[in-house]
Design brief:
Number of domains: 1
Strand content: 25-35%
Shape: globular
Largest sheet: 7 strands, mixed
Strand order of the largest sheet: 1-2-3-4-5-7-6
Bound molecules: coenzyme A
Length: about 160
Amino acid sequence: MFDLQRLAAGHAAALLRFELENRAYFARSISDRGDDYFAEFAERHELLLAEQAAGLCHFHLVVDDDGAVLGRFNLVDVDQGSAELGFRVAERAAGQGLATDTVRRICELAGTDYGLTRLVAAAALDNPGSLTVLRRNGFTPIEEIILVNRPGLRLGRDLTSR
Ligand SMILES: CC(C)(COP(=O)(O)OP(=O)(O)OC[C@H]1O[C@@H](n2cnc3c(N)ncnc32)[C@H](O)[C@@H]1OP(=O)(O)O)[C@@H](O)C(=O)NCCC(=O)NCCS
């Protein structure tokens, strides 16, 4: 069984393990976080929780029965009813519909619990998994962008129309 949980102080060790175990896997499709991220993980975790408490972000983890993190789904830059969605799923949990299903649940939460009316997201054109997840959840292209030196798309979804 998987559980969708709001990021909390007690997640720090499991989240660091998730990021370390999947670092090379993630770096094949998105920017590597860099060594500083891992060296300063504890301080950053505290900062994220402070931002969340201030209502600037909403962070979520998908956690298995053993407490291992299988995915993280973040809503950042909350502003005037809008937020930016980002997500990553562990290599060992990939290809099972986890991202598709969890983005659907995050969109519901965003509208009901967080009072948001619109989400945006960005994906590189050579990241078909991410684009598929977003399109299946009703995100449509807004504009072409450059995402860390790669052509990409900014997509958006209105949360008020369904
Ligand atoms: C992109 C990512 C979140 C997808 O997670 P996931 O849980 O495997 O996604 P799903 O199982 O819901 O897959 C959605 C669809 O995309 C397809 N897909 C996933 N990865 C793919 C890939 N590399 N190439 C082509 N299609 C892919 C799946 O096959 C699935 O389609 P299907 O149901 O027809 O088989 C995950 O691969 C990941 O974390 N990648 C690294 C980080 C990243 O790219 N994050 C997104 C940044 S915008």
